[in-house]
Write a structure and sequence with these properties.
Strand content: 15-25%
Largest sheet: 6 strands, mixed
Shape: globular
Strand order of the largest sheet: 11-6-1-2-3-12
CATH class of the domain at 77-256 and 295-348: Alpha Beta
CATH superfamily of the domain at 77-256 and 295-348: LCP protein
CATH architecture of the domain at 77-256 and 295-348: 3-Layer(aba) Sandwich
CATH topology of the domain at 77-256 and 295-348: Aminopeptidase
Radius of gyration: 24 Å
């Protein structure tokens, strides 16, 4: 083979290699762009407002986005959320059963958050509506007008408890199962043997006591377990609230390791299908992109001693007062509250 032939062959090999590398680069760029598109679509579906016209694609094109790319933005201020977990699975009769209701304060400057779980059977005594259990009111507003259920429920609890609530997040329980499977198993110390079957909705809880790794379905069973028809000890709502907060903390820790929209793509797709919120889309994007920097390093569980007096749960007044004061303090509000809890909530001394 002559020198000229060798040079031609080398040139051909280099051209092929360059073409392959080019295709790889184009493929990576297209994939990143696709993930940005999917994330933006999920955020749009999740937002109950859908008023924002700017998108992640417009903001960053197809490049990888990280929290550092938004360092010039002003930090967020303290916020409060009302989180509702609803169960509308097949077999539940189509009812929007509110099994979880939490008040959450979040201060990104101090990187701290506090969570207060409201027992589902806690007696509430609003002046303008009938006295009912806590889990009644979301379903009431939902059946009255689906389009305004989030602002109406948020305003109801804000006025009732004297706590300004900035946003509400409503999630279907299925989101928990799917998110845990996407993140990887959670290591949970199961506090008791748990067995319960319900053929109507397909529930089949079967967990053993002890430290173990749980997949998405098992984590869902862990946080939902309350009663047993298979010989195991039943759980109180108060213990279940503790389990729910434990799972939230672990999920937040795992999400805090994400860096960039590409890692968030799958998670946001799941959330987009199962979560509704009144948080504006522009704010949702900023939170996702800045999450590793603003993720709370400390999540405080606010405990309220309660007592079951059929058919309602009654909260210890001192504990509930202290919990609401702590939520207000975290967002920089005066602890004084003109709401007389005895008048609006079932309390015990």
């Amino acid at each position: 083979m002559t020198g000229i032939q060798n040079k031609k062959r080398i040139r051909k090999v280099l051209m092929i290699a360059a073409a392959v590398i080019g295709f790889i680069i184009i493929g990576i760029g297209s994939y990143a762009g696709y993930l940005v598109y999917k994330a933006d679509d999920a955020i749009h579906r999740m937002s109950a407002n859908n008023n924002s016209h700017s998108t992640l694609i417009e903001a960053v094109g197809t490049k990888e986005v990280t929290a550092s790319s938004l360092e010039e933005k002003d930090p967020m201020g303290p916020l409060t959320f009302l989180l509702a977990g609803v169960d509308n699975r097949d077999g539940s009769g189509g009812a929007m059963n509110t099994d979880v209701l939490m008040l959450i304060s979040f201060n990104p400057q101090t990187r701290s958050s506090s969570i207060l779980s409201l027992p589902r059977d806690l007696l509430l005594k609003p002046k303008s509506l009938p006295s009912r259990k806590t889990n009644y009111y979301y379903a009431y507003f939902y059946n009255k007008d689906k389009a305004t259920v989030i602002p109406n429920t948020k305003q109801f609890f804000s006025d009732l408890l004297g706590l300004p609530i900035d946003h509400m997040v409503v999630m279907n329980f299925d989101v928990l199962r799917k998110v845990v499977d996407a993140l990887g198993d959670l290591e949970i110390d199961v506090d008791m043997d748990m067995k319960y079957k319900d053929t109507a909705d397909g529930t089949n809880i079967d967990l053993k006591k002890g430290l173990q790794k749980l997949n998405g379905q098992q984590v869902l069973d862990f946080v939902r377990y309350r009663k047993s028809n298979q010989g195991t000890r039943e759980s109180s709502d108060f213990a279940r609230n503790d389990r729910q907060q434990l799972v939230i903390k672990q999920i937040v820790d795992k999400l805090g390791t994400f860096n960039g929209i590409t890692q968030w793509g799958k998670i946001l797709e799941i959330i987009g299908d199962n979560v509704k919120t009144d948080v504006p889309e522009s704010e949702l994007r900023q939170w996702v992109l800045n999450f590793p920097k603003i993720k709370p390093n400390q999540i405080n569980s606010l405990q309220v001693e309660s007592q079951w007096l059929s058919p309602y749960v009654y909260a210890k007044k001192e504990d509930l007062t202290q919990a609401l004061t702590a939520l207000r303090a975290e967002i920089g509000l005066d602890p004084d509250n003109s709401i007389v809890l005895d008048d609006v909530v079932g309390v015990i001394k």
